[in-house]
């Protein structure tokens, strides 16, 4: 378990004090992947460095695998760090060492026998699917393979938690997917708790169990990914599953935002609204993704004001949540400045811009 409580981190002192993290709470259970997302400069890496003990928190507590590591004296820190594996963006492999030698690095400090080292390195490379590349140098490996070597090295000391700071940034989509699939597999097989730092929503959607949005050093939203995407008010949920309604003439129509998540929702709900309920529904946008093995969707539809009750009743019967959206602002003549939209109505674009 990774548990961060009321974490504050300020760099520098006095007039040069620069607060970076404010009152951050975060829990990641064993066997799960917790993502932390946020724009560049939000404090994500600083948070990771406070968890892997490269930085001391200014105040608050950090617990890793049952140990409160906040105030450990220097010599005990070294042992505590062994319980934490870290994978960085560029894997940080030593260029003049083979894949096997890179993986062996952490074992060297432990002074294991040559025989034991050989056995363990072979096992780790096998674990990440690179048994046949042991003798290759980093330059001979693809970006995804280098990250796998980095992961094998991070696992060398049998950590209970793993931190991944932008480990898939810069990888192509196929390599990203394979690294994420490996992390998912390791989480389950080794019962790890993984803190996954990323600025990519696809990454969160693909593997995370929980997610927290960090903005200017504060957690502004957090929760299980399944719940976030099913919550019509969640900015993070909307960024994970963006829903961008097309603008069109909606006179006489009420607009509804729909959110759903789970098996109970029929895939042909839109057709059935027409066929079974006689509702003339205009589909303005829809997006469906598989999240944690289940379909999750967001859609915006418009229907005649007089049919609103029938619409919500039909949708409710399938477990689709429907909420009315405010009327779109009436068109503004071109020479007048457009009024800003209602404050409560955060568009997917602004959320994504803020998040990514
Ligand atoms: N050692 C440091 N000293 C002073 N400021 C730092 C230090 N490390 C990070 N910062 C500042 O903290 C803020 C958050 O940085 P970082 O944690 O790297 O954000 P992220 O990983 O979300 O992009 C940035 O404004 C950065 O300049
Ligand atoms: Mg960073």
Automatic annotation (TrEMBL):
Region (Disordered): 319-356
Gene3D superfamilies recorded: 3.30.70.260, P-loop containing nucleotide triphosphate hydrolases (3.40.50.300)
PROSITE patterns xref list: ABC_TRANSPORTER_1, ABC_TRANSPORTER_2
SUPFAM superfamilies, per the entry: ACT-like (SSF55021), P-loop containing nucleoside triphosphate hydrolases (SSF52540)
GO biological process entries: amino acid transport
Molecular-function GO terms, alphabetical: ATP binding; ATP hydrolysis activity
UniProt domain ABC transporter: residue ranges: 2-241
Transmembrane segments: none
Keywords from the UniProt entry: Amino-acid transport, ATP-binding, Cell membrane, Membrane, Nucleotide-binding, Translocase, Transport
Biased composition (Low complexity): 335-349
Superkingdom classification of source: Bacteria
Biased composition range(s): Pro residues: 325-334
Name the record gives this protein: Methionine ABC transporter ATP-binding protein
């Amino acid at each position: 378990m990774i548990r961060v409580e009321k974490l504050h981190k300020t760099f520098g002192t006095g007039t040069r004090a620069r607060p970076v993290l404010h009152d951050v709470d975060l829990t990641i259970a064993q066997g799960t992947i917790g993502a932390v997302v946020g724009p560049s400069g939000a404090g994500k890496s600083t948070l990771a460095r406070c968890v892997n003990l490269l930085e001391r928190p200014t105040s608050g507590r950090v617990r890793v695998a049952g140990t409160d590591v906040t105030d450990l004296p220097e010599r005990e820190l070294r042992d505590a760090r062994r319980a934490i594996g870290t994978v960085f963006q560029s894997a940080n492999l030593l260029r003049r060492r083979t894949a096997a030698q890179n993986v062996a690095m952490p074992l060297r400090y432990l002074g294991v026998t040559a025989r034991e080292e050989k056995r363990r390195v072979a096992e780790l490379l096998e674990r990440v699917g690179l048994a046949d590349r042991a003798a290759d140098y980093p330059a001979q490996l693809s970006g995804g393979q280098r990250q796998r070597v980095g992961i094998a090295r991070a696992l060398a000391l049998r950590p209970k938690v793993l931190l991944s700071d932008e480990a898939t940034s810069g990888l192509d989509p196929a390599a990203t997917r394979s690294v994420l699939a490996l992390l998912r597999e390791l989480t389950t097989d080794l019962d790890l708790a993984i803190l996954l730092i990323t600025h990519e929503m696809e990454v969160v959607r693909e593997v995370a169990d929980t997610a927290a949005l960090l903005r200017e050093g504060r957690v502004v939203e957090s929760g299980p990914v399944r719940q976030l995407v099913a919550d019509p008010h969640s900015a993070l949920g909307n960024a994970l599953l963006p829903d961008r309604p097309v603008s069109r003439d909606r006179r006489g129509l009420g607009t509804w935002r729909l959110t759903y998540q789970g098996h109970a929702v029929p895939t042909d709900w839109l057709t059935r609204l027409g066929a079974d309920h006689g509702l003339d529904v205009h589909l303005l946008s829809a997006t469906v993704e598989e999240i944690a093995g289940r379909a999750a969707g967001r859609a915006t539809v418009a229907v005649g004001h007089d049919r609103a009750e029938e619409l919500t009743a039909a949708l409710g019967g399938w477990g689709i949540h429907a909420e009315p959206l405010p009327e779109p602002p009436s068109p503004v003549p071109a020479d007048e400045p457009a009024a800003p939209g209602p404050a409560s109505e955060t568009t997917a674009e602004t959320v994504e811009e803020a998040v990514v």
